[in-house]
C-alpha cells in the first residue's frame, strides 16, 4: 500500500471547473454521465434525502505560516 498518496485529480483549471460543475449537478440531482460506448449513468433518485452525503474537501488547506 502506498502511503501519502490520495485519489485526487490534478488541479488543472479544467479539472477544477469540471469538479465544481459536477458538484453543482449532484446537489441538484441532475448529475449524469454517458461513456464513449453509449452507456448512461444517472442518479437513482433526485430527492435530496435519498442522495448520499457529499463531502467537499478543498485543496491547499495547509499553510507554512505559524499562528
Walkthrough of the structure:
By secondary structure, the chain is of the alpha+beta class. It has a domain at 13-39. It is built from one helix and two strands, in the order H-E-E. The protein has one helix at 13-28, and strands at 32-34, 40-42. Strands 1-2 form a two-stranded antiparallel ribbon. It is flat, with a radius of gyration of 16 Å. The mean pLDDT is 76.
Major sheet characteristics: 2 strands, antiparallel
What is the chains' assembly state?
single chain
Work out the helicity level: 10-25%
E-strand count: 2
Query: Would you tell me the structural class of the helices and strands?
Result: alpha+beta
- Could you give the order of the helices and strands? HEE
The N- and C-terminal alpha carbons lie at a distance of: 34 Å
User: Helical region count?
Assistant: 1
Estimate the global geometry from the Cα principal axes. Answer: flat
Low-confidence stretches: none
Mean pLDDT: 76
Using only CA atoms, what is the Rg?
16 Å
What proportion of the residues form beta strands (DSSP E)?
Answer: 5-15%
Main sheet: strand order: 1-2
Question: What descriptors fit this protein?
Answer:
67 residues, flat, single chain, two-stranded antiparallel sheet, 24% helix, alpha+beta
List the helices and strands and how they pair.
Elements: H1 13-28, E1 32-34, E2 40-42
Antiparallel strand pairs: 1-2
Task: Characterize this entry briefly.
This protein has 67 residues and is of the alpha+beta class. The protein has one helix at 13-28; strands spanning 32-34, 40-42.
Amino acid at each position: 500500500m502506498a502511503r501519502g498518496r490520495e485519489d485526487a485529480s490534478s488541479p488543472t483549471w479544467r479539472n477544477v471547473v469540471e469538479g465544481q460543475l459536477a458538484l453543482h449537478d449532484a446537489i441538484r440531482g441532475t448529475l449524469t454521465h454517458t461513456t464513449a460506448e453509449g452507456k448512461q449513468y444517472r442518479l437513482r433518485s433526485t430527492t435530496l434525502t435519498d442522495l448520499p452525503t457529499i463531502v467537499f474537501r478543498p485543496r491547499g488547506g495547509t499553510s507554512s505560516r505559524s499562528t
